[in-house]
């Protein structure tokens, strides 16, 4: 029975966290699987991934040089950890599944190639022969292919699925660029025109194609047009036509194609996740079910043990609340339909709260409950109190923008500081202090820290100005900037803005996924750039006027725009500098100057490196990011509570232990805390309230839910509760074409 419970709990846990790892069901494999999913193991593997990626900071070309022996030992340790994690994974999954999984093959091949590269590079270094560490570009494979990184893999799948459709648009776009290049060669090649630098204008087809590609990004506009425009204003029509077709039409088509494919494949992924979750819950139900009368159910005792096994730290009141929702009729068992909701119930954050009495109410009850004291408390709790201080913050922002040397402005800062201190003291008088500084009370902590820092810095500024080595004005400037950040509180207090801010908070975790994607792409391009360009461009102090300093340490850059603009610090001489250059390329402003400079110090073919980066990052990844932002806002604006959340809220209100989220903002401030275990007892409301001993519950705010969870919620609402879904093999082979009609008409297209 214990083994069945562990197996069922593993299925429920997988459904809760959307894991899709096929594992063996033997007792030993189940225990190994629990250990595999333990948070300490996941933290350890991410630690070794971070160490492995950061080795590029210490290897030649290095920001912080270390001996090759030290970095190679660290890399071997990381590879050992990766191999151990892979062996652990092999112990919990069936052998056929393990060897068919391309992720595992990729990890093993990368480990083998890295070891071979280490041996070859170390052997050549021993005889003073410099070689290339080509395996460093493969290090992001470990970040992508471990099961913990499924979000990053999903983003890469979105890119891979988008490539076939975007390829045809890209080829048509390149055909257009080449057509205009040929036209430019015929129009301007024989005119004898010259650029500002005195070079021939549009006489080489490859140079023309590159300049026109750059023009699509507007980085060289209008410079590239000026020689022809100065010669004859009619030639401006050529460039205007080119920009309209390639910059505005083709770039918009790229976004449309990327968004359409991203949305299509995202819905397919979400559909697959939803059915896999339903499949896991069905497996758990089939393990624990018993027949009562004519239907199969899970007994209450086993349901309790299951929930405890999946979430060991769940409090007894929270568990009782979930049981009341799952067993509405108090029959002593949970039916199939309610059991399938268990993963969703555990995923919804129900906050257990305890309303505390204010310390002053305990120490001086007569004074604290006096009419004057109650009047102050009502004033502080009133919405107008918040509005008044919002206006004060706005006025303070205006005063900060004025001249601080004016004595009136200086004294006004003391007035505003006093008002802010009074606000905090009044709130601490009205609200219970531990509740005011609760875990979720971000703005209270933010305001208090800003005001305390401003008070300390202002006092320090007026008392120790005579200290020669202490620049108090710099500290004060930082505090003033932080004080301006209080304007964010004004924005959040406006309902229309709050939805946008909530959406930004929702997309935060998924933005981190895109951050991982960008890190992978940047890392690969940075390693390639360091191997190709390191040492070709050197940075000198701006005060240096030697010939080498004027050409960034390379004579090939003499009289180039790269050297004239003093771009010497934009180099690939270490990992940090490489990342900064890649960030500048992502912004695309002046990227052709960077590309031209590195082409001069190596070969004109080096421009392909910069064009490839632009295509991958700016055209593909940035457009996918825009598609995600669009989808996130559409979801946020159309979101409603799920059926499971509604059921929880209804039960909380039936039991008379509910506090609405709106009451939390300006009224009762309660501390989110773990409470003593204690179940519900009694039938009427008074007995329930006495049994709860001051406990209250509420659903956590929408801002704590990710966009992926919201999208999955929307799709699951379309699945009938009794629908068990298709077989597992069919789920794993879902295709986006199954969702959309083969011959669309107006209705099904809409």
UniProtKB/TrEMBL annotation:
It is found in: Membrane. One of its GO terms (cellular component) is membrane. The chain crosses the membrane at residues 39-58, 64-84, 105-124, 166-189, 201-219, 239-262, 384-402, 408-430, 442-462, 474-492, 504-528, 579-601, 608-637. It is a multi-pass membrane protein. It comes from the Eukaryota. Residues 41-264, 382-638 form the Ion transport domain. Keywords: Membrane, Transmembrane, Transmembrane helix. Gene3D superfamilies: 1.10.287.70, Voltage-gated potassium channels. Chain C (1.20.120.350). Its main location: membrane. GO terms for molecular function: monoatomic ion channel activity. This is Ion transport domain-containing protein. The lineage of its organism: Eukaryota, Metazoa, Chordata, Craniata, Vertebrata.
